[in-house]
Give the backbone structure.
Amino acid sequence: METTELITKNLVESAHDVVIGIDLAGNIIYCNAAVKSIYGYNPNDLIGSPYKRVLPQEKLGEFAAITENIMFGGTNESIESIRLTVDDRRIKVSVIYSPIKDDIGKLLGISAVERKLTEFRKAQSRSQALIETAPDAMVIVNSFGQIILVNVQTEKLFGYSRQELLGQEVEILIPTRYFGNHAQHRKQFFSNPKVRGMGSNMELYGKKKNGAEFPVEISLGPLETEEGFLVSAAIRDITERKYAEEKFKRLLESAPDAMVIVGEQGKIELVNGQTERLFGYSRKELIGKQVEVLIPERYRQQHPVHRNGYFTKPKLRPMGANLELLGRKKNGEEFPVEISLSPIEDLDKTLVSAAIRDVSQRRYIKQLEHKNRELEQFAYIASHDLQEPLHTINSFVGFLKQDLHDGSEEDIKKYLNYISQASARMGNLISGLLQYSRIGKKRVLTEINCSHTLKEVMSNIQGSIQESEAIINYSELPTIKAYPTEFKQLLQNLLSNAIKFRKKDVPPVITIGYQKDSEKYTFYIQDNGIGISPKHYEQIFIIFQRLHLKQEYEGTGIGLAQCKKIVELHGGKIWVESSLNEGSIFYFSI
Ligand code: ADP
């Protein structure tokens, strides 16, 4: 054969570029030896197969458009495209398509001359190297949802080999029941690609080759490449974390107290069943709410200050030391609680767990115990003090018996006098006791104008006010809800004492006023009298306890015990501040 002839014959066959002849039905009718060196196919295997065998899914449209263009006589520039090798690698090529015509210009087919572009492989291997260093399983997907790159972590996590995954739809990695939705979401992502977590508020699952499902966390990022937008998905297996979370939740549920887990902004992040039962809210109603919903309205405003304070120095401790803490149920009911706080370090943020215990029962028992002790004391003191005049009477009756025949009339009169004084005192004590025990028997809560009550009291004790030349200062007092008879008795006892326990030769100056805070009124009665030593602050409120002989200051020792009972009946407290010779201030809160 002549050289010219030989050259002509082998010209195409030995070209470095791939040359393919395609008929109008889209089948390969010729390809040169380069398909072996570049795409890995034996030319004979390709001949007769459809041309789309070497095209990746997303390039089918491109080829269809070009065929159409050529059929209608258009020309084509060289374009860049992707080819699939026999082992499913993707390689980037530049292609020129041309029409193949016969002598009279009739279109017979299309030729494709395809040259491998080396930068792409480099770029691909660079991205491959890059994603191999990622700690998560990385899957890169094109806009058709096909997997075009995975790392070794993906192989390990899902149990597929790289070859099995490349070119597959990414849905192969998720449980079948999510297929439909997923394709939808995928399209949406491509229409607005940005870095974000996937399925916020949703539990996501991956599916291994063997069908096993496992919980995952996925973050998505757009990747702009020569091939258009791709999506990179970083997939993390969170089985361990889920397990730890579950364990934590179970622990929480098994706690005897209501447990509320709160974030730095005071948002409730987690509660247990006991919380639902104690407060009457469902879990759903609480999660995401401010923790302040669980406390009475009047404390809500100041609570965040304490809360923020705790977060700056979180450590295990009881809450509100020395304070009576109250919880608030959904129905508005309040109840006493005991709370201990402890911080939980959670990855990057601090959470606080509050263990809340309803102590109404315990407090009630304590109150009962206290009342019991008071009663015992009462019985002891009452019998002791009643014994005293009885004793006196007894001894003088003895003297009388002895002196009846030979004693002087004067002595006998004296004894009889002592006897009648002692029985009068005993009568006083008994009626005082009776009065004391009747406090609160027939109580009716009424709106009372305290200024009116005070004026009534002052007119009742008009005599001693005038006699002592007492000066009584008072401001306008509020209108409150109280038990009228008892409240009047309270004021009267305190005012009488303020006058009675005056210094000799110093006329009493007495001031009556009040303060109001969010919860209560605190009244005070201040005098300039003899004062009380701090060691007697408690004792004076006990029945029959007096600091003076009856010769110095008259009295039964019942007045302040009465006051205490009345104030407690109103749910309040009474106390004194004083020092000897300096006057006293009696306070009571209602
Ligand atoms: P009584 O007045 O019958 O003695 P109270 O129960 O009213 O009994 O008071 C008990 C004691 O408290 C009094 O004996 C007195 O020692 C002391 N006390 C009460 N009020 C005052 C006061 N305003 N100033 C000083 N001491 C007081």
